[in-house]
Write a structure and sequence with these properties.
By secondary structure, this protein is α+β, with helices and mostly antiparallel strands. It contains 14 helices and twelve strands. The strands form two sheets. Strands 1, 2, 3, 4, 5, 8, 9, 10, 11 and 12 form a ten-stranded mixed sheet that branches.
């Protein structure tokens, strides 16, 4: 974990904006990751009273061969002052939350006091690559100096070398998808299909209600003809969710994860501000802001542990370090990669055997307050563009927490492929 040392200034998070989120190959399907990000960056920088951020951090999970530092490319295409440094980061679903932690560690309150952080993924515009053997052959063919050498290399090409690399939403080590891993977790933790569908229903209902009352109006900017997320369903019900077939375990008869209780593959970009007191003064006064108090990063051996089960390790460590229990947290934002993963996290957090035996913490954190979780919808309903999810969840939490009494707290938790997870502790506070 990276700690905020006493020498560092107070760190603030101020809500950013995002594009609407849409399912893969939907209304955002024609835009790549840079095109999705540019309007978000332009909007954010256009708000600044000081003209430009001190630096930028941007994340993108699904790679593209035409760029290596997407953060810099986005700033260039957005017409931002080219003297603003920008670097890219990646940590699967935790990408833009990790960018926030990195920015917080860089800010010193003097020369660097305001960072623009965000992330993006366009799962509709995934670039295919050549297999390694075919790539080697192409490179040797290009380097051949004579026609004879080129012909010789042409005859060296074997049919089994002609392969494309097609990125997959699966873990490299195990070859299994996150959904397949989570089916195992659901069985291990005895998570029922009915409970998963209930989480999904609540996510959709909360998202629709939040849109209808205007919660997202200043968090989401129009993109083309799209003005709001396309994924939340007003007409969903437990009956409709129950009719959906299993998506990842279709043969055992015991599969419980479906398209309805899993987050959909999505396109979108999102952003957030990270600032010291001096940086915060450069933002419009109406921008929702809260303090970033602490954070924790956890990692587990996903070959023997659930792929998405790192947060239940991180949360108790973070709470113990700050002498808090579950009841002391007034808002919980837990990333819904799958409803089953959320329920497994809650079961683990409420299990004394897990806390003592796995996390190695003694003490009772109390009952987990389900009624304080994801009040404005989660990833199952809103969507999950991998690189954008961290900034989306944090901005959503910042806005909600900023309306609550000073001193109240939020936990924001994200699980990530690779057996990792990130958790942030936020606190409502008055800025002066």
């Amino acid at each position: 974990m990276i700690n905020l040392s006493p020498r560092n200034p107070d760190i603030w998070l101020a809500a950013g904006v995002r594009t609407p989120f849409a399912k893969v190959d939907g209304p955002l399907g024609g835009f790549d990751a840079i095109a999705l990000s540019v309007p978000v960056v332009k909007h954010m920088v256009g708000l600044l009273q000081g003209g430009k951020p001190d630096f930028a951090v941007w994340g993108n999970v699904v790679p593209n061969l035409t760029w290596s530092n997407i953060a810099r490319e986005i700033l260039m295409d957005a017409g931002i002052d080219p003297t603003v440094p920008a670097y890219s980061t990646v940590m699967a679903c935790s990408t833009s939350m990790m960018g926030v932690f990195e920015a917080a560690g860089v800010i010193d309150g003097t020369a660097r006091n305001l960072a623009l952080v965000g992330g993006v993924d366009s799962l509709s515009r995934i670039q295919l690559g050549l297999g390694t053997s075919l790539s080697d052959w192409v490179r040797r063919f290009q380097n051949a100096r004579s026609l004879g050498q080129k012909l010789s290399h042409a005859f060296d090409l074997k049919l089994h070398d002609v392969r494309l690399y097609i990125p997959a939403v699966s873990n490299r080590t195990t070859g299994m998808s996150m959904g397949e891993h989570t089916e195992i977790t659901a069985k291990e933790w005895k998570i029922s299909r009915e409970d998963q569908d209930q989480i999904a229903l609540e996510s959709h209902r909360n998202a629709i209600a939040a849109w209808d009352r205007g919660f997202f109006d200043d968090l989401v900017i129009p993109f083309g003809e799209l003005h709001r997320d396309t994924i939340p369903r007003k007409d969903t019900s437990l009956e409709k969710l129950a009719r959906l077939p299993p998506s990842f375990d279709r043969t055992s008869g015991n599969g419980t994860l479906t398209a309805g209780n899993s987050s959909p593959l999505s396109d979108g970009a999102s952003s957030i501000w990270v600032a010291s007191d001096a940086g915060l003064a450069r933002l419009p006064s109406a921008t929702p802001r809260v303090k970033l108090i602490d954070w924790e990063i956890a990692s587990v051996d996903f070959r023997i542990e659930g792929l998405l089960m790192a947060p239940p390790y991180a949360i108790p460590r973070l709470l113990q370090r700050n002498s808090l229990n579950y009841e002391d947290i007034h808002l919980w934002e837990i990333h819904e990669a799958f409803a089953a993963q959320v329920l497994a996290h809650i079961k683990a957090l409420q299990s004394p055997e897990f806390i003592r035996g796995k996390v190695h913490i003694t003490g009772d954190f109390g009952a987990f307050p389900r009624d304080r979780m994801n009040p404005n919808g989660g990833s199952v309903a809103l969507g999950h563009p991998f690189g954008a999810t961290g900034a989306r969840i944090l901005s959503q939490a910042v806005k909600q927490l900023s309306t609550m009494p000073s001193g109240q707290r939020a936990i924001v938790s994200i699980c990530a492929d690779g057996g990792q997870g990130t958790v942030a502790l936020l606190q409502a506070a008055s800025s002066t």
